[in-house]
Amino acid sequence: MTSVPQRPQLALIGISGYGRVHLQLARECRERGELDIAAVTVINPQEEAGNIALLQAHGCRIFSDYREMLREFRGRIDLCLIPTGIAWHARMTIAALEAGANVLVEKPLAGSTAEVQAIREVERRTGRFVAVGFQDFYEPGSAWLQAELQRGVIGGIRSVRFLGLWPRDRAYFARNDWAGRLQVDGVPVFDSPLNNAFAHFVMLSLFFAGAETAATPVALDGVELFRAHAIESFDTCVITAHTPQGVRLWFGTSHASRETVEPEIRITGTEGEACWRYEAETWWRRADGTTQQRKLLDAHGARRAMLSATLRRLRDASVPVCTTEMAGQHTALIEAAHRQSAIVDFSPASVHWRGPNGAGSQVPEVPGMAAALRQAFGAEQSLGACGFPPARTG
């Protein structure tokens, strides 16, 4: 690891969309004297004139092309933030590593296992590190629960299951050129609830199950993929799987619902159970009634913890970050699910669309689906096994 100056030099590729979140995090760190924002790539300068002026006032260089930025600052950037679309993650991460920078790239790490392998090879060759932006991995309560599980507070882990329902309207899938797509310009994207909005919780489930660094990826037992939206990928799914150690996994999600179910992970052990609830709490409880609990940070707090850990990693290789090895397990799961199952369209007659402000605000709802997902979550079963008609037909 190369020496790092007192104030690490940071570069940022993109400051619009989700890039605004990373820009805010970087500004907070700069105001505390923890880093300098040395260079930023902006492809829409007319829309970002105000942010550009503020950045330049602090000595930041503005570029219209990330490759030009990395060429000019080669060897002078300690950390490059990459909060861009999935199709750009691999190529931008590799370019930043080749330019001598460490990287914090937004989740998922890449759209395919081939891209993950390419990133990991450059990471090894350059001696730099890549931290992946699964923000809830960095949340202190998540680390606490994993440590508690590892010391056996609920015995051996039998199963880990995750459920989440977040309504998404038509406009959500029209916000960029990769939303709901399987690939863009020949580059794999596999955008879906499991690879985007709920990807954090899939990765966290693998972490709690002890499968985040397994030599063998998890094995899929059943895959149900559905869609109500007019997209290439799926917006509703149930996946059952197991780890090489035999831990059962269950993932159920949907964007085709007007009901919200905040993400929840349940862990069942031989001597108790544990739970992780998004932006709320995490706890474990033994069969004898012994229990412990921790509060969880909100999403912005988790993101602050993520950037803080990545900055500390610049000087201390023992600081834990979500590595490319860990994130690669998530990508392998997504890729395998698409290989194993076709996507089934919900019958148009079974999808009810409602929204307050025209077609773009309309959210689909499939009657009975939310209840079926809850039932499947509790029983660790497929939707078909729970009698959900579209699943039986599919």
Overall form: globular
* Rg on CA atoms, Å: 21 Å
**Beta-sheet strand percentage?**
15-25%
Oligomerization state: single chain
Q: Uncertain segments of ≥5 residues (pLDDT<50)?
A: none
The strands making up the biggest β-sheet line up spatially as: 16-15-14-13-7-12-11-10-17
Number of strands: 19
Strand-pairing-aware structural class: alpha/beta
SSE order:
EHEHEHEHEHEHEEEHEEEEEEEHHEEEHH
**Average pLDDT over all residues:** 95
How helix-rich are the residues, as a percent range?
A: 25-40%
Helix count?
Answer: 11
**Termini separation:** 52 Å
Sketch the major β-sheet: 9 strands, mixed
Summary?
The chain is of the alpha/beta class and 394 residues long. The protein contains eleven helices and 19 strands. Helices cover 32% and strands 25% of the residues.
What does this protein structure show overall?
The protein is an alpha/beta fold and about 400 residues long. The protein is built from eleven helices and 19 strands. Helix content is about 30%, strand content about 25%. It starts with 8 loop residues before the first strand and ends with a helix. The strands form four sheets. It has a nine-stranded mixed beta sheet with strand order 16-15-14-13-7-12-11-10-17, with helices on both faces. The model has no long low-confidence stretch (mean pLDDT about 95).
